[in-house]
Design goal:
The structure is a homodimer. Chain A has six helices and nine strands, in the order H-E-H-E-H-H-E-E-E-E-H-E-E-H-E. Chain A is α+β, with helices and mostly antiparallel strands. The mean pLDDT of chain A is about 95.
């Protein structure tokens, strides 16, 4: 893949790159796209100077040795601060994701005074990608926009799905019999996040692999969204 | 794989099954083993009747329509109740894992009056599996014992690593340059969980696939443990 610029059609670039390396996209593929190139193409990589820090952003950044402009961006991207401790801001984004720093990232953005914000609507980004594959190649593939999130209780980050199209993200097994014929009560695997995690193995941050094909997994096709994976505030035990 | 019984050598069974299906284990494989067969082989599948409920277990189970014997097992496997709401017990297990019901599971255990508890030391279970592959096949492979955990803020469960041997679970990138030459501050992917998640795609609970080969991923070899993935209580923002 070439380095992505604002306005680029990343699906078109990915189609070319996949064909050029001898692994063209196929019907049934799940194609995982790194958030950072989606954000770049969609104009969501912005100069830090566009974020004039509020007094809150200034105070927090001073206390914890952060760039106050970046803190300001984190706050503007959030609808709620979930935790604010030890220099870490865990926020709920406008999409409903709970993550560190609202997904605002200063790595691999193409410059040192730029930051990347999450796409405005990552499901729409995934749909556009999927639609382009459908139109240009005549294939039905799933598209997943993926980002790297931390987790409570476990160190290290894993890739998860923040936007998707062409698959159902969850696979409810409740009500199905297990191997003993016992009806399962609570069991809903999330293949979308497992596909994103699998792709994450091939796209570590320091390397330039922004698109990964996950081939051969029989995901359930359908018109799903990553919003379905967001647990509602009311249902959550960790508000 | 045949159905596993207490005392079985699951590595030996897996070696046979892999060879029989024409995909023998190879040097560099990451082999993911479902917790339930590890627990079965290690005698951690027990009759519910062994768990005489305490008054606490009785009261909670009555209020939320749970089997009080199973609740008792959950409590005995825990060192701390992290959340207790709406019929859900989120506990910290003796291993330090934070999960629903201490990992106690009544699905796919081989009978309707049995429950499966997590292995006493899943890292040791993984090491035994890895050692058997080394001895019998002369290969260096990684072994991951995996279970299906829920997450806060996101619906659906994903497979994660609860025990491992032969690989380093985390890949710290801090201090390395990103694509722009900017030194990364907080970036530690957790390939062990991503490998387990990838394998989870091939081992949904209602089907009988307890061992999955993840081949071709250049994990960092080493003497890691899943304990390294457990965030310490002091460092956690969601105690």
């Amino acid at each position: 893949m070439p380095l992505v610029q604002e306005g680029d059609d990343i699906a078109a670039l990915a189609i070319e790159a996949a064909a050029a390396q001898g692994t063209p996209f196929l019907d049934g593929d799940a194609i995982v796209v790194a958030q950072r190139i989606v954000s770049k193409a969609e104009g969501r990589v912005l100069p830090l100077d566009e974020f004039a820090p509020s007094p809150f952003a200034l105070e927090w950044s001073e206390a914890w040795d952060k760039d106050p402009r970046q803190t300001e961006a984190v706050l503007r991207e959030s609808v709620r601060i979930v935790r604010q401790m030890k220099g870490v801001l865990i926020t709920e984004t406008r999409h409903g994701f709970v993550c560190a720093n609202s997904g605002v990232d200063a790595s691999n953005v193409g410059g040192t005074d730029l930051i990347s914000l999450l796409p405005v609507d990552p499901d729409a980004s995934a749909r556009a990608f999927r639609d382009t594959l459908r139109e240009r190649l005549g294939i039905e593939a799933a598209a997943i926009v993926s980002d790297t999130f931390g987790r409570p209780w476990r160190t290290g980050q894993t890739n998860i799905a923040i936007g998707l199209a062409g698959l159902r993200p969850l696979r409810p097994l409740e009500g199905l019999p297990d191997l003993d014929g016992r009806i399962m009560r609570v069991s809903t695997p999330c293949p979308a996040d497992e596909i994103a995690g699998a792709a994450g193995l091939s796209m570590p941050k320091s390397e330039g692999v922004p698109v990964v094909i996950v081939r051969g997994y029989p995901y359930e096709r359908g018109e799903g969204t990553a919003r379905e994976i967001v647990r509602s505030f009311e249902d959550d035990l960790f508000p």
